[in-house]
Amino acid sequence: MSTLKRYCVGIADGKLYVDKTIDTMAALVSAVKFTDDKVLSSAEHNQKLYIADYGDIVAKGTDGTLASTGTVLDAASIADWTAKGIDKGLHAVFIYNGSAGVATGIYALQTVAAGSLTLVSPGALADGTCSYKIFVIPKYYDPALNTISFWIATYGLVPLNCSIIARFRDRLVLAGDPDSPHLWYMSRSGDPMDWDYYQPDVSRAVAGQNTDAGAIGDKITALIPASSDYLIFGCHSSIWMLYGDPAAGGQLNNLSYNVNVLSATSWCYGPESEVVFLSSNGLYAIAPGSVNTPQSITENILPTEFQNIDVTLNDISMAYDAKDNGIHIFITSKGGFDRVHYWFDWRTKTFWPVDLQSDHDPVIAMNRTSFVGSEESVLIGCRDGYIRQFDSDEVVDDGTAITNYVKIGPIRLGNGYTEGMLAELIGTLGTGSGDLTWEVAVGKTVQEALAANPLYTGVWASGRSNTTRPRSRGDALMLKLSGSSSSTWALEDIQITGIGKGKHR
After folding, report:
1. Which residues contact 392 (CB under 8 A, 6 or more apart)?
2. What integer pLDDT is reported at residue 2 of this predicted model?
3. Domain identity same for 219 and 316
4. Residue 260 contacts residue 221 (beta carbons within 8 Å)
5. Does position 486 have pLDDT exceeding 60, yes or no?
6. Contacts of 415 (CB under 8 A, 6+ apart)
């Protein structure tokens, strides 16, 4: 009997890691490398993983010369090819504008020497002149063969320097080329190696942009397959949706000219397959199959840290956690300084701040699905190169005690004109819960209560506590509950009894 398994694949320090065994990520031994200073996107197609590796052009020119039956490239403008940082495991050569017999194409490198580059056979097929660019090449991983290969098309050219990838209607879609940020490209349906846009059939490769007639399209920031029938294009200042196949009567419509999607990783699927994404002004959702304007789900509760996020300075990632019914939102500074992490509770539509050790800050998060239930989880790729997951049963984080507390309030004791008094306080913890330390602070205003030092404190143990009578007078109170660093806790309910008092004193 065969066993189905979904492999978890990660890239760090230029290497690809795979969990061939449970809970163990091992680096694949390969001469092929990946960019090590960027967050890379990938898409699965027919049991292979296609990775949109990209980076700056390391060398280019119009003075290329090909010799040795088109396999040796040199250029008068390049004194030393080895000084250009060219890596045959990472880069490939794009040959174009060639003289007679020189074929336009992308060619892998066999050797990098000071005086020339040797291209992997079949080379450019003839000697002559050409223009050239040396790029980071996209790649694909084959788990059956356990190999990484350069993604070089059989027909046409795989678009280079694209940072965004998705699968839609059996096509692979690429976008995010900084030289053409408004364009998207789709492979032939069913064949990621075919990028020939000039074939007559409806399965051919196709390219386009999102725009009204006569205008240049908006910069694409995200590719979001909403279903097999809908592809959402998140853009710098707008959102578009493609209905159906673009080569077979598909229709492109605008969903909003005012709402945007911040980045390729600032979205996730919600519990009912809605698309949830972070915009410049909050969280939005698009219902499955919806043709309506995206709906704000945080209109009046958005933390100020989510406003005006600079995507060039921060890595943004989101992942829905089915176990706890909420969304992890991570905003991590690329420079290692500021970070903003929140848990968004889907049931109550509320934000809860999350603080992590600085080297544990996530640069990417994903909802891992699996045929094995115990492997279902949200995984976070952290700044220090480790992959981690949240576990509600743990009380330490890599040996560091977890500080945990919750503030409840402010709770009004008065009505603004009169004050009130906290007369009684009773807490009930779950059976087997660890102890909770409670603190009560009051103030004549809500702001005072938020900033005030605690007037009374105590400890609740498992079960129902004895009645406490703090007799704290004011207009508002704050209740802080702090757990032990050596145990978990569960709160069932809190009973607060207030008594109305006179005018403010």
Report:
1. 324, 488
2. 56
3. no
4. yes
5. yes
6. none
